[in-house]
Design a protein that fits this description.
single chain
């Protein structure tokens, strides 16, 4: 089922900063359940200089992990960004998945999502990994609905 991107993270402003992580393969159901539970724990504790971040996250299409921070509330610091990177590396190691290969995108093809090299993707139908705000995610990804 395809999410309604325009309503993703309805409690966070469009200026919120995002980080996108594409898995090198789709998560199996048990892996996605495990990662959702770990993501929830991480988000509850995610902080910048001991200040709790106003944040959220989601797994889309069993392959795309999206982290969001409302920086109008508390700015993500270098250390907090490092902690999210560490979280994603730890999750990747536990699942034997690479979340850090930026040379691939997720492209819609015949109603399914397919991971393919960025240079071979049709720009009209892939999820752009280079966006930086929630508003960009909503506007660019909504056009794919």
């Amino acid at each position: 089922m395809q999410p309604n991107f325009s309503s993703l993270f309805a409690n966070l402003p469009d200026e919120s900063r995002i980080w996108l992580y594409l898995a090198d393969r789709p998560l199996e159901k048990k892996e996605e359940e495990w990662l959702n539970a770990e993501l929830e724990l991480f988000l509850k504790s995610w902080a910048a200089h001991n200040n709790k971040l106003r944040c959220d996250g989601i797994i889309l299409f069993s392959q795309y992990i999206v982290l969001v921070v409302d920086e109008a509330f508390v700015k993500a610091s270098g250390c907090s960004i490092d902690s999210s990177t560490h979280f994603m590396k730890k999750a990747g190691a536990a699942l034997n998945i690479d979340f850090f290969n930026r040379l691939y995108v997720l492209q819609q093809e015949g109603g399914a999502w397919v991971r393919r090299p960025y240079d071979l993707a049709n720009t009209a139908t892939f999820l752009t990994p280079f966006i930086q705000t929630l508003g960009e995610l909503k506007s660019q990804w909504t056009s794919l609905n």
